[in-house]
Design brief:
Blueprint: E1 3-10, E2 20-28, E3 33-40, H1 49-55, H2 59-62, H3 68-79, E4 83-86, H4 89-102, E5 111-113, H5 114-121, H6 130-136, H7 147-164, H8 169-174, H9 189-193, E6 200-205, E7 211-217, H10 220-226, H11 235-242, E8 246-251, H12 255-269, E9 284-290, E10 296-302, E11 311-313, H13 316-330, H14 347-350, H15 364-381, E12 385-390, E13 397-403, E14 406-413, H16 422-428, E15 430-431, H17 436-448, E16 453-455
Parallel strand pairs: 1-4, 4-5
Antiparallel strand pairs: 1-2, 2-3, 6-7, 6-8, 9-10, 9-11, 12-13, 12-16, 13-14, 14-15
Helix pairs in contact: 5-7, 12-17, 13-15
């Protein structure tokens, strides 16, 4: 079994927007290095000053170096039938795989990460960065942050790992059914092993325990692992994978509950890598207030978190359709409801559909009675129901409560709980904030599965 121990220097941290400036490959037979390859590469782009200061490789040094495409055939031959080994293997592999693809070669080979292997075979070290780990193991590193020096140190580390691998971790990792090498370098496999194949919400956390991404899943383990497949070379993906140190999760009874919990948690924790659900903010609300003359006025306005809305909408059209319904059913003034603005009297007054509140002909007290009836009517037409479904275990069932058109909360109840006792139900459910996105999920589910819906 031959290993290709690889290290590269680059112009930046992600393959799709940066180039390779130097590559070193040491072919290792499991005991010693049997072949060495090393060359500077012209990256066909400027080397940033901070990269030059780190590696010592300047634009002048690579000006006359070969292009990667000119070396691609030789590099491919050195790698394609061997086990690709590197310290943080997915970084080096992503660059070389990308560059080979650009040159017409597709590299498919098994990988070993000496970071991950060192954590297993040589546990207990404070740091597993190449420099600090080599210092702790008394491995001499000459020419640090150059491909040749780092590859030589990694080859010595590989020999040590092979010699110390009493529990056969290397062979287990190379097993064709093992997905371990696809995992981020700082995420222990034990974190994945404990995740169940059930619905729920998962949380990726960084080294300090800060949540950097939240997702939902029908099958937690499958969904979490899917993040680590593929060979995306974008900056965002590379940085994202580097920052994952732990995975936490919360099991949900159903996929619908996972959808809802994900939306709530993203709004609560606002992780850097979640974008889509951050855009699902309420846009408009129906509000009531009393003006200086004492008239209660209904109106559509942009959604305001600090003021309680009678109802909320994602589009102005939905809001105005509901408002016009209330105006028609309860003989309200279109001008006092801000539907008309530029007339002294509303058109409803001319047509006998307004009692003249807009002109002061109807008293505020008389008008406000109808506004109050309109608000009561609105509450009566807004749905109140519970959605019952399977729970996390056989002796419980999940329950979601919608009250007067707003999501109240969800949780788990006994099959003997009387769902019509709303106060009792509320006492055992976890309240959550309501918004149109969550209501849309619940309403669609209720329409699709009417047998799970119980009117209250």
């Amino acid at each position: 079994m031959l290993y290709a121990v690889v290290d590269i220097e680059t112009t930046g941290g992600f393959a799709s927007g940066n180039g390779i400036t130097e590559i070193s490959i040491l072919v290792h037979n499991g005991q010693e290095v049997v072949h060495a390859f090393e060359t500077l590469i012209n990256p066909e782009q400027d080397i940033p000053p901070y990269i030059e200061s780190l590696t010592g490789i300047s634009n002048d040094m690579v000006a006359d170096a070969p292009l990667f495409k000119d070396m691609a055939a030789e590099i491919y031959e050195l790698l394609h039938d061997k086990i690709f080994v590197a310290h943080n293997v997915n970084f080096d592999f992503s660059f070389i795989h990308h560059q080979l693809m650009q040159s017409g070669y597709e590299l498919n080979c098994r990988k070993l990460c000496t970071v991950r292997l060192s954590r297993k075979i040589l546990p207990g070290h404070r740091s597993y960065s190449l420099g600090k780990l080599c210092a702790a193991l008394n491995i001499s590193v000459s020419n640090r942050h150059r491909a040749g020096g780092d590859t030589a140190a990694t080859a010595i580390l590989l020999s040590m790992l092979i010699a110390e691998d009493s529990e056969n971790h290397i062979q287990q990792t190379l097993n064709k059914f093992s997905k371990e090498q696809a995992l981020p370098p700082n995420l222990p496999k034990s974190q994945i092993d404990r995740i169940p194949l059930v619905p729920g919400v998962y949380y990726f956390k960084d080294e300090k325990g800060k949540v950097i991404y939240i997702g939902k899943a029908k099958s937690l383990k499958k969904r979490v692992c899917s993040h680590f497949t593929g060979n995306s070379t974008s900056r965002q993906r590379q940085e994202f994978l580097q920052n994952i140190y732990t995975v936490d999760f919360e099991v949900c009874g159903t996929e619908l509950m996972a959808f809802i919990l994900e939306a709530v948690e993203i709004k609560r924790l606002w992780p850097d890598n979640n974008r889509a659900l951050k855009r699902h903010d309420q846009k408009y609300g129906l509000y009531v207030f009393e003006d200086q003359k004492g008239y209660m006025r209904l109106g559509i306005d942009k959604y305001r978190k600090q003021v309680a809305a009678l109802y909320s909408f994602n589009t102005l059209l939905d809001g105005h359709n509901l408002l016009r319904l209330l105006i028609k059913e309860h003989v309200l003034c279109e001008k006092l409801c801000f539907v008309q603005r530029n007339r002294q009297a509303c058109t409803g007054h001319d047509e006998g559909r307004c009692s003249g509140a807009c002109l002061g002909k109807e008293s505020a007290a008389a008008y406000n009675v109808r506004v109050k009836y309109a608000i009561a009517y609105l509450k009566s037409i807004l749905p109140s129901f519970a959605m019952l479904d399977k729970g996390r275990t056989d002796d419980e069932q999940s329950c979601l409560l919608v009250e007067q058109g707003k999501f109240y909360g969800m949780g788990y109840i006994s099959s003997h709980t009387d769902v019509n006792e709303v106060d009792l139900l509320k006492s055992v459910l976890q309240p959550y904030p309501s918004d149109d996105y969550i209501l849309h999920l619940i309403m669609n589910h209720a329409e699709q599965f009417p047998n799970k819906k119980i009117a209250i």
